[in-house]
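Sorry to interrupt, but I need a hand with the structure work. Leave the record below and I will have a look:
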Amino acid sequence: MNLEAMKRKYAYTLAKVGLNVQPGQPVLVEAAIEGYEFTPIFAEECYKLGASNVIIHYLDEANLKVAAKYRSDEDVRRVEDWEELQCQKYLDQGACYVRLESANPALMADVPEAQANAIFAHTDAVRNIMRKASREKHCQWLIAMIPTQSWAEYILKDVPKENALEELWKLILKICYVEEDNDVVKTFEEKGALRRERGNKIDDFGFRYLHYTAANGTDLTVTLTPYSKFGFKGTRKGIPFHANIPSEEICTTPEKFGTNGVVFSSKPLLLGGKSVENFGFRFKDGKVVEVIAEEGKEMLEALVNMDENAGYLGEVALVEYHSPISMSNVVFYTTLVDENASCHLALGRGMGRIQDEKWTFNDSVIHIDFMVGTPDMKIVGITEDGREVPVFENGDFAL
């Protein structure tokens, strides 16, 4: 494999398939500073597609860690005027937005939970500027990963350090379906068609509830609305794009007040660069009423109290346990990748709005996915008339 050529093909995939950069369009980039060698490659592929300007803002978590040590939590959380203006200027010009993430779970290991939560609150607030634009202006957006040495060493502990970064690149290319001889545009069209087919099949049943159970104690019922669609039918507004690369999920927004029971995580969650593992939430009438965790409980409680709606669900997503990412047997310690190895839920903001007094989708300043899928997970769809249909058996689609 010519790895350098494949990195460029990956950059092309993100620019063309992910963002679908249009001629004359600015591209606003948030990139992990550790991935600085890849960022110019990505920028060049955007320019080749006709981008008018590629604006790079680097996320320097190591510097945020130092700042959090000496500044008050309130100061760390605050978004400065210049931070907002430097983003809004280009969004007003019709920019699309990409977040090129990496992961370094060890970086924040020694940071107190309150400081880590303040760092998360700041970065998430800045990102909300872009999220608002994507909703209101229908601009394209994308979240993708940049392999880095620190991330590679953390998750590939059995690989010699000098080989770890190359092996991580190969792994990311594989799970993103970037191959030496394939047409990535066609590949993603085919994968998207399969997900739409599955989603439409679920929608055809008109399920009112999804009931999740697993041996780890998960016993959760989520209420769906007539507007909660896993598939896609009709005409899409704006420019087509793929918001997440990689992506194996089909997802929808549940009814705000209709979640009851308990659910436990199946993979770590990274908040403010700090990893939280082995946790759960108990819901009543849609809202988290109990955080279950031995470590990281303070961060999780702060998360569900970020605003008045942060403790309600905004997304339910279905992903087969035996997906390519899961079968890699690697925990990536980043939500973007790990959520595509597992069924997951999201606290906070839903993915749409309902103009209907009978049903409500949640809205919040946050949207945080956490993974719940297990090898033995069972999901039963329940129709309005009480008919029960197996949707998942042993972690995989049963339909």
Notes: The longest helix spans residues 113-136. The longest strand covers residues 26-32.
